[in-house]
Amino acid sequence: MSAIILFAHGARDPEWARPLQRLRAAILSSVPDADVRLAFLEFMTPTLAEALDAVAASGAGHVDVIPVFLAQGGHVKRDVPLILQAARERHPVLRINLHEALGETQQVIDAMACCVLDATLPLPPLGAA
Amino acid sequence: MSAIILFAHGARDPEWARPLQRLRAAILSSVPDADVRLAFLEFMTPTLAEALDAVAASGAGHVDVIPVFLAQGGHVKRDVPLILQAARERHPVLRINLHEALGETQQVIDAMACCVLDATLPLPPLGAA
To answer: What domains appear along chain A, each with residue ranges and CATH number?
Structure first.
């Protein structure tokens, strides 16, 4: 058994989590029986540590931690390894695989570029080839 | 003449801006003569106000402001409208068009879901159909 944790920063505004919930739904639409959980650095719960404890308690042997961040800043570089190290000590049997921040992947950057072009390019004049 | 401002949070780590620079490059690869600028809320320069002043000084009549945020949190909901309002008062001729946060667009959410699935799904066994 394995699980996926979508780990994001969190914010005071509850609506901030909505795109994360939509991302979880998009994953589940392809793999309906996947165990996909959200976790947050601050302001929202569960924390990453709590989510890892819950995954371990579920009996999963493997978890993929996906940082849903635009870039590998201090949070992903410094905070996350410390949280994972502590979780590995609490749950030595659980294999924890930390992935690249989603915003650093070329596929996501290309999709963002397409959105910008779609939203900003003037429409060609009517009758243009 | 029009311009695009990719507006992001900013961070202390200079490497944080790298995906933004890659996003700018991806846009320019489709529209090489576009005027695409980065701007930041904090920690990095130029600020959004500075970028808007520079766009106005360039003689552009229109600017699209694209929030490169995962979600419409307090920064996008509260801070950005105030910055834009002040810029509109300084530059009444410049038309400023604020767009949805990129992370809220379905195209970007779908790309993120694909990345998660690519990175986490077990490979099918050799010889599987």
So the answer is: 2-120 (3.40.50.1400)
Q: How far is B90 from chain A (nearest CA, A)?
A: 23
Per-residue pLDDT of chain B (129 residues; tens, 9 = 90+): 899 999 999 999 999 999 999 999 999 999 999 999 999 999 999 999 999 999 999 999 999 999 999 988 877 888 999 999 999 999 999 999 999 999 999 999 999 999 999 999 775 556 655
Residues within 8 A of A (CB atoms), B 98-117 only: 99-117
- This prediction has a pTM of 0.91
The answer for A43, left when phi > 0, alpha when psi is -120 to 50, beta otherwise, is: left
For residue A46, whether the previous peptide bond is cis, meaning omega lies within 30 degrees of 0, is yes
Q: What is the ipTM of this complex?
A: 0.92
> Is there a catalytic annotation at residue B9?
yes
Question: Hey, what are B46's tokens?
Answer: 């130029």
